[in-house]
Amino acid sequence: MIRVLLADDQSLVRAGFRALLDAQPDIEVAAEAADGAEAVRRIRELRPDVVLMDIRMPELDGLAATRRVTADPGLGGVKVVMLTTFELDEYVFEAIRSGASGFLVKDTEPEELLRAVRAVVAGDALLSPSVTRRLISEFASRSKEPAAAGALDRLTEREREVMALVGMGLSNEEIARRLVVSPLTAKTHVSRTMVKLGARDRAQLVVLAYESGLVRPGWLG
């Protein structure tokens, strides 16, 4: 059973998400929170699998709340997905840097929300497919000068190649087709790369791909 915590200051939004999620046989809403501070308290208490976190909330916004969650070693298994009204919210880029596993727009289709929750738990998710490449492209244009790539020395040549493709927004299936390997092999390479670099999830792997200079703006085509 996938346990979800809903953090949003709008009760109507929480009620809508709860109705959708609780109707699934493999998902349950463990708790709700109306502000960021309450969300952090409830997350530490309940340790849910996934947190759907609104970016703009009173007391403590979703970005600050996410930083507290991802900085807590005891909450390493908690995946945070940011919720935003706009596809390219100004805070999304910093949220990904802060450890969020991705983001969804609030008006996303119900099927996409369910797919995202399940995928994040499985470790396969990055962002909403409809905006993944747009977000990565925007992130790339805002990124600073590449940092030293010393951390990549521990990767094999194939792992570097896979990391670059992840940084370009490709899914495991797309990586498999590009490299002519099975999706399971592609997923294994991605997982090993994350472990070697200490990346929390694919989202942070994308950040590292740009910050190390492995992928650069303009490569998306």
Describe the structure.
The chain has helices at about 10-20, 35-45, 60-70, 90-95, 110-120, 130-140, 155-165, 170-180, 185-195, 200-210; strands at about 1-5, 25-35, 50-55, 80-85, 100-105. It has a 5-stranded parallel beta sheet with strand order 2-1-3-4-5, with helices on both faces. Helix 7 (about 155-165) crosses helix 9 and helix 8 (about 170-180) crosses helix 9 (about 185-195). Helix 3 links the parallel strand 3 and strand 4 (about 80-85). It has 10 helices and 5 strands. By secondary structure, it is of the alpha/beta class. InterPro entries: CheY-like_superfamily (IPR011006), NreC/VraR/RcsB-like_REC (IPR058245), Sig_transdc_resp-reg_C-effctor (IPR016032), Sig_transdc_resp-reg_receiver (IPR001789), Tscrpt_reg_LuxR_C (IPR000792), WalR-like (IPR039420). It comes from Streptomyces tibetensis. Keywords: DNA-binding, Phosphoprotein, Transcription, Transcription regulation. This is Response regulator.
State the major sheet: 5 strands, parallel
Beta-strand proportion: 5-15%
Q: Nearest-angstrom radius of gyration?
A: 17 Å
Q: Uncertain spans, ≥5 residues at pLDDT below 50?
A: none
**Helical amount among residues, as a percent range?**
40-55%
Number of helices: 10
Sum up the overall morphology in one term.
globular
Structural class: alpha/beta
DSSP strand tally:
5
Straight-line distance between termini: 40 Å
Listing every helix as H and every strand as E from the N terminus to the C terminus, the arrangement reads EHEHEHEHEHHHHHH
| Quaternary structure type | single chain
Overall mean pLDDT: 83
The largest sheet has its strands arranged as: 2-1-3-4-5
